[in-house]
Design goal:
Among the domains are: 82 residues, no CATH class; 126 residues, no CATH class. The protein is built from 11 helices and 5 strands, in the order H-H-H-H-H-H-H-E-H-H-E-E-H-H-E-E. It is mostly helical.
């Protein structure tokens, strides 16, 4: 029965419509925008509890990203409120403290204003300092320390052995291989391969028009090629040949013309696209977006010949 209930809840979350997910994102944004106005810990706790209830409906990466943003900003607000808090209590009165000490030690019960000039004449030896010790003793109770034995134990001096160092020889030195030498031709070949793949992805993006970022870059058949797609796409975005924007809570990618010198003069700046993804997130994206076929075709695998990597043609 518990498994059935769990599956029912899971199916309920995954069956949320796009309109319901949009409302969840809107509530998250409202909470995030309202955080700077929170001026009390009680109000902050109230908002966090509200977001906890909202998180129970989150089942996609987009809403989870907003939840992470809220946690970071609410943590900063909470830290600032904690720093501004002060312990309630009265100020420490040194004069009152000294009066009470004198009372305990059998001295005067009060230091009057007119006696301040004669304070140096107080006979400290007449005070019963042991009374302070009796009062403080319970707070310093501890287990008695361990004393040393009267005499040392008999010990025998161990003779140090001389260490003879030998040069280590590898018996199989004949079979050792030299480190692989990387030549300029190999680096050039790799650069050409990267340039070719970046160009091909740019052409595919131009054919697709505006498309969801995850549906475009994710290869459901290969996690490694998904990572490669992100790497190649980053060059298009860096060079201004692709535009990444948010529309209705989704990340949309599209082909665009690179900026010219006039655009740079008007203040446009290049930005590098960096997206971290692990295998669990990759599987979750495939399930949420129901990706069956890759938009970017699977590239041929590579093989190694003569200790060098070459792409299969």
């Amino acid at each position: 029965m518990d498994d059935d209930n769990g599956n029912d809840k899971l199916n309920k979350f995954y069956s949320l419509s796009e309109n319901e997910n949009r409302k969840i994102r809107m509530k998250y944004r409202n909470h995030i925008e309202g955080l700077p106005d929170v001026n009390s810990p009680d109000k902050l706790i109230e908002i966090i509890e509200s977001v906890d209830e909202l998180y129970q409906k989150v089942n996609r990466t987009q809403e989870a990203t907003l939840d992470s943003q809220f946690l970071l900003e609410s943590a900063e607000i909470g830290a600032k409120q904690a720093e501004s808090m002060k312990l309630a209590g009265e100020n420490f009165d040194t004069e009152d403290w000294i009066n009470k000490l004198l009372t305990i030690m059998g001295g005067r019960h009060d230091i009057k204003q007119e006696d301040e000039d004669n304070e140096e004449n107080v006979n400290l030896r007449s005070l019963k300092w042991e009374n302070i010790g009796i009062r403080a003793e319970p707070f310093f109770d501890r287990v008695p320390k361990i004393d040393n034995m009267i005499g040392p134990l008999s010990t025998e001096q161990k003779e140090k052995r001389s260490i003879v160092r030998h040069t280590r020889e590898n018996k199989n030195s004949v079979n050792l291989k030299k480190p692989q030498e990387i030549r300029k031709e190999d680096i050039k070949e790799q650069e050409n391969e990267t340039t070719k793949n970046v160009f091909q992805i740019g052409e595919i993006l131009e054919q697709k028009g505006q498309v969801n970022l995850f549906e475009f870059i994710v290869n459901p058949d290969s996690f490694s090629q998904t990572v490669e797609n992100i790497f190649y796409l980053s060059f298009l975005i860096r060079d201004g040949k692709a535009l990444l924007d948010e529309k209705d809570g989704e990340l949309i990618i599209e082909r665009t013309d690179p900026p010219d010198e006039e655009d740079y003069l008007h203040g446009i700046k290049k930005k590098q696209f960096v997206l971290e993804i692990d295998e669990n997130t990759w599987k979750e994206i495939i399930e949420v977006y129901d990706i069956k076929e890759p938009m970017i075709p699977t590239r041929p695998k590579v093989q190694m010949n003569n200790s060098k990597w070459y792409g299969l043609q």
